[in-house]
């Protein structure tokens, strides 16, 4: 999922720098405190032994990532009625799925994609379907990660306690 301010278009040089640092410190824990949709994390090679910790302050996002991690099934087509009903629900997997996956530019409930389709590379694609395909891509990454709903400050304090 792409949105203004997102890390989906993270420069290759930045990923290369991060990967080099990871390679120099093979036993170091990788912390991603503003994990979002894992656009940075999914591009890194952690090896089989590295501990990976991802967190975000947005509760619905963490519910969504946890559900993806656990292999929960999700509807791939969301109606405007589904969208309207989900907005007023308590934070949950389904609310996160609908609020992020079916919103304009990935902004949480920032406008339903009422047109359902858009042009991209001369193909007509369902925007929600495109977003939901991303979940299949990040599932292996999130399955090997510890996932936390917390602020940056709390994650850092937890990490200091782990050492």
Topology:
Layout: H1 12-24, E1 30-32, E2 52-56, H2 59-69, H3 80-87, H4 93-101, E3 117-120, E4 123-126, H5 127-143, E5 145-149, H6 152-162
Helix pairs in contact: 2-4, 2-5, 3-4
Estimated structural class: alpha/beta
**On the 0-100 scale, what is the average pLDDT?**
82
Shape call: globular
Bin the helical content: 40-55%
Strand order of the largest sheet: 1-2-5
Distance linking N and C termini: 34 Å
Number of β-strand runs: 5
Q: Treating each run of at least 4 consecutive H or I residues as one helix, how many helices? A: 6
Which regions contain 5 or more consecutive residues with pLDDT less than 50?
A: 1-5
Give the H and E element order: HEEHHHEEHEH
User: In percent, how much strand structure appears in the residues?
Assistant: 5-15%
Biggest β-sheet, characterized? 3 strands, parallel
Compute the CA-based radius of gyration.
17 Å
Fold and architecture overview:
The chain is α/β, with parallel strands linked by helices and 163 residues long. The protein is 42% helix and 13% strand. The chain is built from 6 helices and 5 strands. The protein has a 3-stranded parallel beta sheet with strand order 1-2-5. It has a two-stranded antiparallel sheet with strand order 3-4. α2 packs across α4, α2 packs across α5 (127-143) and α3 crosses α4.
Question: Tags for this entry?
Answer:
globular; alpha/beta; disordered N terminus; 5 strands; three-stranded parallel beta sheet; 163 residues; single chain
